[in-house]
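Deliverable D4.2, example record:
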Amino acid sequence: MTVDATVQYNRLQNLNVQFVPYEKVVTRYVEKKWRPFAGVTYCSFGYAGAGAGVFYRSAGIQVQYVTDFKRNGFSVGVMKSF
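Output generated by the structure prediction step:
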């Protein structure tokens, strides 16, 4: 804001005011509610697995196929994201 005043004989003759408003910029990051994921695992006991799942906000569920190449099966897990 700038003010330019002209005074003559103790009287205000001219008053110029310039005002430039400040514009606030807000940037928001919106995280997706549903986030799919996939992964593979290997255990030192000789088990290997491949799985997939989905996170809803910060809670997730996972289904995994597990095998030791002689026996196989599925595991189900619940997860929490921090």
